[in-house]
UniProtKB/TrEMBL annotation:
Segments forming domain Ionotropic glutamate receptor L-glutamate and glycine-binding: 3-65
Domain Ionotropic glutamate receptor C-terminal: from-to ranges: 1-196
Keyword annotations from UniProtKB, A to Z: Cell membrane, Glycoprotein, Ion channel, Ion transport, Ligand-gated ion channel, Membrane, Postsynaptic cell membrane, Receptor, Synapse, Transmembrane, Transmembrane helix, Transport
Name of the molecule in the record: Glutamate receptor
Cellular component, GO, one term: postsynaptic membrane
Protein species of origin: Galemys pyrenaicus (Iberian desman)
Similarity comment text for this entry: Belongs to the glutamate-gated ion channel (TC 1.A.10.1) family.
Bilayer topology: Multi-pass membrane protein
The organism's taxonomic lineage, starting at the top: Eukaryota, Metazoa, Chordata, Craniata, Vertebrata
Binding positions for L-glutamate per the UniProt entry: T76, R81
C-alpha cells in the first residue's frame, strides 16, 4: 500500500523486492540492531481479523501462529488487534472527513440587535415606560406635597411623556433636565442609572464580539 510498502521488482523466479517508507524504517532497524529479514505476503492478502472460531487470518494470524516475527503495512490499530499483538508507536494518523463549500457570510441589518435575544429587548422596552410611569407618579405626589406646603411645584417630568422621555434619555446615556428632589425619586433614578450602566456595558462587549468573530452554524 503506497507509500508504505510497494513492490520495486517482480522478476520471475526471483524474490520480490520492496520499497517504501515502512521498508526504509525496517532497513534502518536492521542496520542498527544487526539482523536480516525476508519479506513475504500473507497467504490470503488480508490485514487480519478475528474469525468465528476465535482464530485470526491475514498478517495478524501469521504473527499469532509465529510464522512471522513482525508485520509491516498500513494497518489500522484497533482494540481487538491490540489485544493479541503488540503494535509499534504509530507514526501517522489520519481521519475521514467531508468537504463542503464554505457558506457565504450573510450580513443582516438587524445585526445590531444580535447581542441580546428578543426576550431581553422586550424587557428593556417594557421597563422604560414602567419606570417613566413610576417617575411621573412620584413627581405628582411630590407636587401635591409641595402644594400643601405652599412650595413651588417642580416643572421637570410634570407630564407622563416627559417622564418617559427622561427615562429613555438616561437609557441611551443622554443628559436631560431632571428634578430628583425626593428620596424616592433618587432611589428610582439611581437604580435605573445602575441598570442602564450594566445593560450598556454588556451590550458593548457582546456587540464587539459579534462584529469581530464570525458566527456561522455548521451545516453538517
Amino acid at each position: 500500500e503506497e507509500p508504505f510498502v510497494m513492490v520495486a521488482e517482480n522478476i520471475l523466479g526471483q524474490p520480490k523486492r520492496y520499497k517504501g517508507f515502512s521498508i526504509d524504517v525496517l532497513d534502518a532497524l536492521a542496520k542498527a540492531l544487526g539482523f536480516k529479514y525476508e519479506i513475504y505476503q500473507a497467504p490470503d492478502g488480508r490485514y487480519g481479523h478475528q474469525l468465528h472460531n476465535t482464530s485470526w487470518n491475514g498478517m495478524i494470524g501469521e504473527l499469532i501462529s509465529k510464522r512471522a516475527d513482525l508485520a509491516i503495512s498500513a494497518i489500522t490499530i484497533t482494540p481487538e488487534r491490540e489485544s493479541v499483538v503488540d503494535f509499534s508507536k504509530r507514526y501517522m494518523d489520519y481521519s475521514v472527513g467531508i468537504l463542503i463549500k464554505k457558506p457565504e457570510e450573510k450580513i443582516s441589518i438587524f445585526s445590531l440587535f444580535a447581542p441580546f435575544d428578543f426576550a431581553v429587548w422586550a424587557c428593556i422596552a417594557a421597563a422604560i415606560p414602567v419606570v417613566g410611569v413610576l417617575i411621573f407618579v412620584l413627581n405628582r405626589i411630590q407636587a401635591v406635597r409641595a402644594q400643601s406646603a405652599s412650595q413651588p411645584r417642580p416643572s421637570a417630568s410634570a407630564t407622563l411623556h416627559s417622564a418617559i422621555w427622561i427615562v429613555y434619555g438616561a437609557f441611551v446615556q443622554q443628559g436631560g433636565e431632571s428634578s430628583v428632589n425626593s428620596m424616592a425619586m433618587r432611589i428610582v433614578m439611581g437604580s435605573w442609572w445602575l441598570f442602564t450602566l450594566i445593560v450598556c456595558s454588556s451590550y458593548t462587549a457582546n456587540l464587539a464580539a459579534f462584529l469581530t468573530v464570525s458566527r456561522m452554524d455548521n451545516p453538517i
